[in-house]
Each structure stands twice: as C-alpha cells, then as structure tokens.
Amino acid sequence: MAAPERSMDTSSSFLQKFRLYETRSNFYMIGRDKNRTFWKVLKLDRTEQTELNFHQDSTPYTESECFETLRRIHEGNRSSGGLKFVTTCYGIIGFIRFLGPYYMLIITKRRKLGEVCGHTVYGVAKSRIVTIPHASVLSTVAYSKDEKRYKRLLCTVDLTKDFFFSYSYHIMHSLQRNLSNNAEGQTYYESMFVWNEYLTRRIRNNGTDCMWTVALVYGFFKQVKLSVSEKNFRLTLIARRSRHYAGTRYLKRGVNEKGRVANDVETEQIVYEEPQDGHPVRISSVVQNRGSIPLFWSQETSRLNIKPDITLSAKDPNFEATRLHFENLAKRYGNPIIVLNLIKTREKRPRETILRAEFANAIKFINKGLSKEERLRPLHWDLHKHSRKKGTNVLGILGRLATYALNLTGIFYCQLTSDGFQHQNPSTVENNIGECSTYDLPTKDEIASDSAVENGNDSKDRQKEATMLQNGVLRTNCIDCLDRTNVAQYAYGLVAFARQLHALRLTESDTIDLDNPLAEDLMGVYETMGDTLALQYGGSAAHNKIFCERRGQWKAATQSQELFRTLQRYYSNAYMDAEKQDAINLFLGYFQPQPDKPALWELGSDQHYNAARFLASSVPEISRSTMKRSLSESSILSEGSSTVAGRHGLGEKDEEVKGLSDSAPEIISTSNTTAMIAGSFSAPPATLEDIGLDEILENDCFCYNDDKHDGEQCTCAAFDMDWVSSSGASCEDESYGRSTMVRSFETIPESTKLESEICVINTKRDEVITMEGEVISGIPQGYVRWVMDEEEGHFW
Q1: Which has the closest alpha carbon to 91: 184, 1, 14?
Q2: Residues 556, 775: contact at Cβ < 8 Å?
Q3: Within 10 A of 184 (CB to CB), how many other CB atoms are there?
Q4: What local confidence, expressed as pLDDT, does residue 603 receive?
Q5: DSSP letter at 135?
Q6: Which H helix or E strand runs over 155?
Q7: CA gap 752, 329 in Å, rounded
Q8: Which residue stretches, if any, does this entry annotate as coiled coil (predicted)?
Q9: Cβ neighbours for 758, distance < 8 A, ≥ 6 positions apart
Q10: For the whole model, what pTM was predicted?
Q11: Are the CB atoms for 668 and 354 separated by under 8 Å?
Q12: Does residue 772 surpass a pLDDT of 60?
C-alpha cells in the first residue's frame, strides 16, 4: 500500500466522509476530507475475536491512488471472496466488547443542525453496529443469550436523538474556551461532555489519529435566524450534558464522592451577526449551568408513590463532596459562582425544605474557608410560592436576579475575521482575563457612529472594540433541575440576550421587554430545550405552566397537559428508567461485562450503588423488582448496602476519590419537623438595593461572618423566611446539626389508598371532575389531587 513520496499538508484538514470495505481477514476504511484533496486508509484486523488491532497508513493518497490500492487488495484476496463494499459512513463512534467479539459503532447518516463560526454542526440521523471478527472465527459466546441481550441494551441508547458533533469545531467546549485555549489532539475527548470517551479510548490509546472518530456531545442544539431593525443575526442555544454521574431522575440524585452531580448541564447561548464580505464578525456568548443539589441524597423509585420520600445522608459532615463540586465549577468558569436555589420554603410534609436547610448549611460552611473573591454567592428564592401569588411577575423577578448575576460575571464578546475561526487578535483573550465586563458595552453614540461607517462601506475605519470575557457562572437548581430551573434559565438568557444584541450593535438598549417579539422567539427555543432535557432525565416533556400562561393559553388545556406529563414522567420513572440507566452505564463504560461476574440485569438498582452505599444498612437489600411502599406522612426509605458488594465496573474510573470517610452515615428523613428547619436560621435580613433585590428577598435570611467586626454581610443563606414558626431556636445552635431520627409510619391517608394502588383507574366514560374551577374528564378526583398535591412540576 505504499505510495510515492509527496508534500501534502493534512494537519488542518478533517476526514468527513468514509467508505467501509471488508475482506475475510480485514476491514478497510477509506476516509477523505470535505474538499476531496486527500484520502487515508485505516485497517482493522478480523482474525482475532478478543483483541482489537488497528493499523493506520500514515500516507495521504490522491483519489486515483486510493482506488488503485483498493483494486490491489481485491486482487490479492480474490481466492477468499475479494474486497466487498459494506457501507458509506460519516465517522466512527467507537468500539465496545461485552462477553464475545468487539463491535464497531459508526454513523451512517447525518443531518446538519447549524453552524458556529462557519463550522458545521451535525446530528446523528442513523447509526450501525458492525461485528469486527469474521463469522468464521466467532465462538459460541457471540451467539449466547447474554451477548444478545447486552447488544439489545446498547441499542436502546438512541444516538439519533440529541447527540451532535462537529468535525472542525470543538463543540464540547464553550466559544470563549475555544478562542482562548485551542485543545489539540486527544485532549478534547477527555471533556466531561464527550459521551463516547470510553468507546474511543482504545483507538486513541493505540496512537491512531483522532480524525477517524467523532466526539459526540449529548444534550441539545438549536439554531435560528432572527432579525432586528432589518439586521439579520443567528441565535444558537447549546446544552451539554455531563457524562459524569449521568443517568435518570430517581437513579441519579445529588452528588457523588468526586463532586460530580446528577443532571449536570452546561447551557451556552451564542449570538452573532450574519457575515459580510470584508467586515469582521461580531460574536457573543454566555454560559450558565444547572445541576442537582450537591449533597448526598436520594429517592427510591416506587410504583406506588408518585412522590418518593427524600433520603438525606450525613455521610459527609464537612461537605467535602460539595466543596469539590464548587471547586470544579470555579476551575471551569472562574469566580464568582452564583447559586440560584429555587426549591420550596414551605411544605405540608417537609421534603424539599430538608435539602434547602442542608444546602444553606453547606454553603455557609464552605464559605468560611474561602476568600471574599472566591466566596459562593447564594440566592435562595421559592419559585413555587411566588408563582402562586396572584399578580406576581415571576419572569420579571427572575430577570432582576439574572441582572444581578450578569453584573458579576459579564458576557463573552469579540470580533472574528471574515474567514471564520481566526480571532482578530489571538492574544487579546488570554491577556485580558479578568479585565473585561459587560460594562464595556458600546454607547448609543458609538452605535450610531458605527452604523454610519457601515453605510459608507468603509470597513477600515470601523472602530476597534475590546474583547469582553465572562468570569464566573450562574448555577441554578430546583429538585429535578428541569421545570423551575428551565424557567429561571430562560429569564437569565433573556437578560443576557439583550446585552449580547447591544454588544453586537444591533440594538440601542441593553434590555428587552417580555412583550418584545424577540423575547417570544427566545422563549420558544428555551421551551424546546427544556422539553428535550426533561425527556432525557425525567422521562417526559417539561412542565411549562409559566410559559403557557405567558402565551395566554387556556387554563384548562394547560392543566390537562401538565397532568398528562406528570403521569408520563411517573410511568417512565417507575417502569422504564432501570433499563435506561443500565444502557447508559454500558454505553459510558461504567459497567463492563465479565464472564465470571453477575450480569448487569442481575444486580440491584443503580441507586443502591451510587447513593445507598453511603447509608447505614438497616434493612435487607431492595431489588429493582421490589418497590417499597412509601405513602405515609413521615416515612423514609432505608436503603441497604449489601447490594454494592456484588457490583463491578460501575463508577468513574478516571478520577481519584478524595476526602470522604468510610464510616457509616447518619440519615435525615423527610419526616423531620418543620420546626427543626425553622430553628436553623434566625439571622437578620439584608438587602441588595442596587437592582431592587431588596424587594425580592425582603424576608430572606442573611448571616454575618463571625470573623468580621464591621458588620459586612456574607450572604451565605439567603432564604425566604416568612413562613418560619417562632420556635425561638437560634442559628448558632442548629446551623450544622444533622438529625439522626428515623421515623416510619405505614399509615396511608384514606383519600389516597384506593387511587394509589394502581396506575390507571377505570372510570365511566362520562365522568367529569372539577379542578380549581376548570374541568378535566375521565380521571377520578382523588387520584388527580394525589398526583398534583405539591408535585414538583406543573403546580410546583
């Protein structure tokens, strides 16, 4: 296969289209670049069943030389059937082995999703699994029931939904990071947002060029073309889901020992003007984050309880895992870290409030060891409570909170040359870190001046603009980080959107009213993203009550939609998530089958491995097929740890476990009284008058650092406290305490016994009930109340 020596620069090119051929002993993959300037050859050995052997020909070929090489291979293998064409493909996803042979996952069809700086982003439209060894060398294991079941399980990871990639742009990184730190070689595959890192590990470790594989990101990508004042621009919204501690709603909660949280998603909003010949392209981006509350807590999936009790572990008394999580955020985004916590302040039976109190304790504890610049900036605001108040402008209040956060972090803005990804001054971004903010936005006079220059077609006189950087990030959470969180992220995105358009000199004002058509356009994109992320983690589309009300949708239709989504989410969590979690663990390499070990489906629930091993073993193991009944006023799921001993291969193998004790933890149940939480906070209130947050958080509790004598407030526990009972307990007495009380009553309210026994209740066709003045037909009233009462989601 040798070719004549030639000078052909392929360092800046990318293979984008491939053809797969086979002989009895080898696979041959032929790849070419987009412009058909060079071809390369990759050979895979088919004679070994349990080994994966590659050979990449380093020689770049012309088209004629490539086809001549294939002709010679065909002639040399004519006696065994010759060379056969298998399929056209668009990149290798990776390689995997269960109990028998290796398999290769390839993309056989792609679809264009959009562009970033002229670089195309694709979605996976169709994929295929190819068995590497030839049928003649396969053993009986390759045809065993377990092998086939593993293969079917892997196929349940639908690569055609929400996976995307780019050949020439590092889509797993933010725009700011790409412009300031161009990752080379294999380093970008190690990103927390590359989901096929494990599948590509063998070919990368073999020294083979990464141009054969694509780095898959899982989440959401949508790009729309909009216009303002007859000026066109593109809006791109990207959500990147972390592969660390990834999974489904009830099987992945809270934080793990490495500081990784469940449902960890980075959202990036990119805005740039349509390129014009001879003009630099202005572009801006802003990043925000969502993730589960970084504490050791869990909820056991139940087929009899739509709202499982929350189990909070006291395994980590010094909040080491929580600290690791926020350290990782600071490393990725810089400081400050603003924490917007949206969970409830008041419940009939304490559930969310337990986590709210503990989260405040964690932030206060961590902040005591940080400098003023590094200190976490918490904003605790009960979205559920305020959304129920008549006349409350929830999006308006969230917009003011977003303004506060953006004033601290800023946005990213720069100019690109018209040829695409080359920055006008490559050193500007790296040299100005920490020196730019949104306060550098252009004035109205500068916009008018710039417009005059453009109308005069004199690009050389265009005013030079300073690069702005985002330093720090807003981290938002509720319980599931789906419904309420998505509303808050939209509010933040809208405030940032206005500043981005202003920075691009497309608007004179740096604010956008909620009634502006651009706000409606942005809301539609965020609503679609919310539905997508909710389906991935929760099993149903997001609860969009506030969005529906904003659009003026009929209240009865909204309630029916929300009820259906609640039932859909409940069914998915109770009956489908276990297998979905197994498939994710298999795809990510967190479980690797071994012949002498139990099969994945023979093990206990994934929740036991990740959360219950931190809890005291007080009851026998609860298998996945056995659902514990937990409907009482004050019950707790006490999870056994014996299952863990039998699990193998689960967890993140590429990170070191730090800082946690192996001692048995204490447990806080959702049965603890409201008075315990209320007594934890009694510090005087404080205000943030600069943007009117004094009105928003007028009853919130701020605490004072003991080390300060000047009365400076540390804002480490800004809670809505208007519901707190007058227990007389002080903040100092209970601020870091954990209750070890476990109360469990198996009494079930009479109103819920019958309806909670089964999933679907047979009713008369003409049965009609009334719900808050609206009519819903076909569902028993008691069941509807049971579903909707304080449920995270449509009634928040």
Answers
A1: 14
A2: yes
A3: 9
A4: 87
A5: G
A6: helix 145-155
A7: 43
A8: none
A9: none
A10: 0.76
A11: yes
A12: no
